[in-house]
Design goal:
335 residues; mainly beta; four-stranded antiparallel beta sheet
Length: 335
């Protein structure tokens, strides 16, 4: 099996993440990718304060980036399922816990933004939203400070090769524990910056084995096309919701049924009734996509990365799920 890459200089990182690609790993220890400083792993504690700045992208508006030093301009992300730590005291979802790729999330796959001293607010950043959290799971039990924004830990991404890359944006990630969605971060209030959501029709097997069913789906991971083209995921509605009102809050939204979020009016693909597509404002200020007034969600069990032997293919695993937040079902196309 071969996998296309935008930059062949990432061969070592690709081998690390894909596992099954036939590339010699040498000693098996990750190394710096010569042409991609944004993807560097963390090997030691920082020696000075980190700076966080804001920049403007074409697709996501203003977002946070590293403000100075070797990684200046590298995109910064938050992980939705990290919120489980503040809700329940559980480990961070991006941690050094075991995962199917056998590579630590917080040092290799999504390197944590560490700081020695209070982080510095660069251009366009609200200094009142900057903070830190103490982590002992990043450098083998060593106590280090990770930069937070509005209380959410910030990370880089292994496949961002250079400043301005946004390969990790809106990535519905099955590797973290639990599954979560990675978003760029808007500087003004620390909310996610998802860009414009895209809805289309997708055919996938119910329960992962069939029969195939055409359903309404959302496109995620829009910039991660090197390894994950056409990343469409079924969307669901909940019986407990009311028009433009979501009963899925807290752990429900952070982990199990992530809301489909958007910046601006969502895009409707072929076969999707654009007049039925809208938005509503959630309690945290984010904008959730609706269909005929019903809030839309993803299901954490549907998350996959095509080509990885650990994570199958597109599927519909959440149909008919009975939960404390209602019964979730997919949306069939309008005949």
């Amino acid at each position: 099996m071969t996998v296309p890459f935008r930059r062949l200089g990432r061969s070592l990182a690709a081998a690390l993440v894909l596992g099954f690609v036939a590339v010699a790993l040498g000693s098996g220890s990750p190394a710096r990718a010569a042409t991609s400083p944004c993807s560097d792993m963390i090997a030691s504690a920082p020696t000075g304060p980190a700076t966080v700045s804001a920049t403007r992208t074409s697709s996501y508006g203003k977002v946070l980036v590293v403000g100075s030093g070797a990684y200046a301009g590298c995109s910064l992300y938050l992980l939705t399922s990290d919120e489980l730590h503040s809700l329940t005291g559980a480990d961070y979802a991006c941690s050094d816990n075991a995962n199917a790729l056998n590579s630590p999330c917080d040092t290799v796959l999504w390197p944590a933004l560490l700081t020695d001293g209070a982080p510095i607010a660069g251009h366009g950043v609200n200094r009142n939203l900057l903070g830190t959290v103490t982590r002992t799971d990043v450098l083998s039990g060593q106590s280090v400070q990770q930069v937070t924004y509005r209380g959410r830990p910030l990370y880089r991404f292994i496949f961002d090769d250079e400043p301005g890359d946004t390969q990790g944006a809106d990535l519905f990630d099955p590797v973290t524990s639990p599954t979560g969605t990675w978003y760029l971060v808007h500087p003004s209030r620390g909310r996610v910056a998802p860009g414009r959501a895209q809805l289309q029709l997708e055919t996938a097997p119910v329960g992962g084995t069939g029969p195939d069913a055409p359903v309404l789906a959302a496109t995620m991971n829009p910039d991660f096309t090197d390894l994950f083209p056409d990343a469409n995921f079924p969307v669901y509605t909940s019986s407990a919701d009311r028009r433009n009102r979501s009963a899925c809050q807290g752990a429900c939204a952070a982990v199990f049924w992530p809301p489909v979020l958007t910046s601006g009016r969502p895009l409707a693909g072929p076969g999707v009734d654009r007049n039925a597509v809208g938005t509503m404002v959630r309690p945290d200020g984010t904008h959730q996509v609706t269909y005929k007034g019903r809030p839309l969600y993803l299901f954490f069990g549907d998350a996959y990365i095509g080509g990885l032997p650990f994570y199958g293919d597109a599927r519909i695993d959440g149909a008919g799920a009975v939960t404390p937040w209602g019964v979730f079902n997919t949306i069939p196309p309008v005949s």
